[in-house]
Here is the input.
Amino acid sequence: MWLSFVTALAASLLLTPFARHLALRMGAVDKPDGKRKLHKAPVPLLGGVAVFCALIIGVVVANLSQSPDHPEMARLSLVVVLASGFVCALGCVDDCYDLGARFKLMLQIVAVLPVVLAGCTVDRIVAFGHPFDLGWWGVPLTVFWLVGCINALNLLDGMDGLASVVGLATCAMTAIIASMTGHPHVALVALVLSGALAGFLVYNLPPASIYLGDSGSMVIGLAVGILSVQGALKTSATLSITAPALVMSIPMLDAALAVVRRKLSGLPFHTADRGHIHHRLLDRGLSTWQALCIIGALCLTTGAAATAATMLRNDTLAWATALSLVVLLVWTRLFGHYELSLVKLSLASVLDSLVHLLTGSAHSARRASLDRLSCMAFDEAWNRLVKEASLWQARSIELTIHAEGETTGRQVWSDKARANYDKGEWTLAMSFGERATRGCELRVSGPDAGIPEPLYLMRLARVMRIYGQHWLANPEGVPSVQLKLVGPSDRRKEAA
Here is the structure.
């Protein structure tokens, strides 16, 4: 085992500089954009090529050192190498030409099909000591697991050394679990991948001189997905679900919350954002090294819980540990709090709409409110909005009227008592009409510490909708914006 580990480590140390030179020659570099990619200069990609080649060399040495009485090692090595080679080639193309999200997902599914055809599927899972037969569902669930692992590591790879550290931690824990469950061939391949990642990590630690790229993150995700399942098998097709689920819990949690965040925010899944766990830690003022250590410690903790559950045959202990970590992350607002708020707001909106649908009171109440506002002067209606918004800790309100692309009316209110609060703010903005013809925009902001509960935020949005529709239909009362006409003499003065 140690010979294979050291071989993969040495191969990765030697091959990574060549991969970096190849990436520079091919123009496969990650350029900073000032938003998500904050590194100072372009960094070469294709680090995954070095990791994959080191994996092949380590696996060859491991197979040569095995006796021919262990065919499982050769079969597992062939499956891992072929499937990883396909996703590595796919990642290289994506690093160079930026493939579309749907096309890449389709090719990822194609990449895991050889794994399924080789018989690496699960027919039965065991959770908390109770077996559950999957039947033919075992094939799509295996494909879903492997594709999920690929994208979990791919989405997590957004900071120097992060995917390498997470991959190294999960591989090490997988090797320990596989040894305990009587799968030494799985432990051997996991150690080989650990050695390849350890050698690459020398060049990938902050500040990184080369990145894994999709060619590396997808290889790690697929290999860890295969090994975590194979290392936790009780029989040839019976899986103890606790070990692989907990080993991959942090990357899977990050990927799941990314789906929730983008879905409830109305963004396409493939749209990049700064909502991942490493972004949250960096936004809290932590350094790259500190964020890296925290995420690595979280992965080791969940891996240790999975190992303890395997050793003690106690799934409850492992799941309680993982759940405690998630609750701690949400409670401290390090990660998951924003997504939880989106879920609560969505549920509150659905329930509120259902109540109004059953009672039929939503339209009549809105119509009555608009009729009352139409009888008021602008100042009276504006003061009523300020009073209502203050109930939700609002510190500023801005109303803007647009006509034919120009701003024709504007009114602003600000609470001086909260104006100097500099710890961030929440903002709720709503637009009505068309900016090109006639439109109205209403924006309400408040201090970050006073973020309302989702149900109250939804009620505030309903109030803003009533006032916004009123001023869209009656813009003449809004204070007008004075437009300054610039003549030739004014231009000469400005030039001087």
Notes: The longest helix spans residues 71-97. Strands lie at 29-30, 43-44, 124-127, 130-133, 238-240, 396-403, 406-414, 425-434, 438-447.
